[in-house]
Amino acid sequence: MEPIRHQLVVAATPVEAFDAWVDQIGRWWPPDYTPDPAGFRGAGIEPRVGGRVYLVDATLGEVEWGRVLAIARGALVVHTSTLGQDPEHPSRLSVHFVPLDEGGTRVELEHGGWDEGNAHVRSKFTDWPLILDRYAAFLAS
C-alpha cells in the first residue's frame, strides 16, 4: 500500500527545521491528535536509533508511541508509530529535511509501513497537512 506523502517549505535551515521537529515536538504537536487531548502535556523524541517517541499524559505519564529507526541531524528522522493504531502493527514515519538552493528547507513527510495488520486504519491519517501547518507556524514564530 502506498505511503501517505506530504511536503512543505519552511524558512529555516535543515538543522533548524530538524531541531524543531525532534527537540520541540512537544511544543507544536496538536493535542487533538493524541488519545486524551485534555491530558496532553507534551511529547518527545529521543534522538538516537532505538530512542523512544512518546507522549506525556497528565494521568498516564509517558506513553510510548514509537521507536527511532534512523536519525541524522539536519537530514532525517524515521520512526515507528503506534499512535491511533494497534501496537502490534505499527506504521512508519519518515521526515526528510532537504536544503533548497534558494534558501529554506523542504520538509518531506512519508507515512508508510502499511500492511495487512494496519491497512484498515490508514484512512484515519488525513490531517497531516493540518499538523504540518502547525509545525510550520511554530517554526516561523
Structure described in brief:
With 141 residues, this protein is α+β, with helices and mostly antiparallel strands.
Describe the structure.
By secondary structure, this protein is an alpha+beta fold. It has a single domain (4-140), classed as Alpha-D-Glucose-1,6-Bisphosphate, Chain A, domain 4, CATH 3.30.530.20. Helix content is 19%, strand content 38%. The protein has helices at residues 14-23, 25-28, 128-140, and strands spanning 4-10, 40-45, 52-57, 61-72, 76-81, 91-99, 105-112. Strands 1-7-6-5-4-3-2 form a seven-stranded antiparallel β-sheet. The mean pLDDT is 96.
Low-confidence blocks of residues: none
> Largest sheet, described in full?
7 strands, antiparallel
What is the level 1 CATH name? Alpha Beta
Order of helices and strands: EHHEEEEEEH
Helix share of residues? Answer: 10-25%
Domains, number: 1
Specify Rg, calculated over alpha carbons. Answer: 14 Å
Can you identify the CATH superfamily?
START domain
Terminus-to-terminus distance: 36 Å
What CATH architecture label applies? Answer: 2-Layer Sandwich
User: How many distinct helices?
Assistant: 3
Structural category is alpha+beta
Beta percentage is 35-45%
Q: What characteristic shape results from the CA principal axes?
A: globular
Strand order within the widest sheet?
Answer: 1-7-6-5-4-3-2
Mean pLDDT: 96
Number of strands: 7
